[in-house]
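Handoff note, outgoing to incoming analyst
You'll be picking up this chain. Sequence as last confirmed:
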Amino acid sequence: MFKMDLIKNGLTSIINKKFMKILLTGKNGQVGFELYNSLSILGEVLVVGTNDCDLSDTLAIRKLLQNYKPDIIVNAAAYTSVDKAEIEKLNAIAINENAPRVLAEEAERLGSLLIHFSTDYVFDGTKQGAYMEDDQTSPLSTYGSTKLAGEIAIQKNCKKHLIFRTSWVFGLHGNNFAKKILQIASKRDTLHVVNDQFGAPTSARLLANVTANLVQQYIQKSNGFPFGLYHLTASGKTNWYEYACYLIEKSRNIEKVINVNPVSIIPISSSEKTTGAKRPVNSILDTNKIQRVFSLSLPSWQEGLDHILSGIYNE
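Most recent structure output, in case you need it:
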């Protein structure tokens, strides 16, 4: 069974065997924050944010990698504002497509492993059932199309890569749906939440711990390691409305100040909510491949959310 805190067993022997230099981008993001905690016990981690290296500047990226010469590159940086990307297309292309291409080219030159995070938004959401890794992609938005272009650039330019498509990420650090709902629910009496978009809320902590686990496996078995594209989410599925109801009910059960009760959360359709970019109706990703190949059993989205709620209310 995969556990959230699995990565400490056997670390001493692994680290003594081969000390890693790891470059981590996305220092200020919710995934990057958790990744630093998980990866820092595996080697020397240089973590960078926008102020350290502008990922829209390809020359700056190359200089950073050529100077540091990492064994492993973990790219947790992305342009993630789905609606703003429709207006700021050049910025989205620079961060989501061009930066991964440069990272891949430099990783190939250095012989480094490149780990990259992508999204369920590479699909149009029309499939009945969970999406497999080799299903046809057809993004609906600039965000989705630039993330797909980043995947393709990595696959073309770097043999030693791991690409993780994930969905509905939340974490203790940074902004996300869970925090926004709780903030609104403490001030309003009712909420209107979309009920016809389905996916698996996935904690940044889960992504970080799985990444660290796979880095360990890579260190132990760099020859014959199963590089490639994998879907990585928590298990189970829900919609935004049910997700919000779960958040509110759990929060009220631990006696936090929440004005909204589950009865006051009103389900609406996607057509009733105006957004700058279209979202896929079905964001469910099949994770059987990553569980089989790497001997993982992924926890439910509720388990991850319970942990984050505990952290939020204990801050």
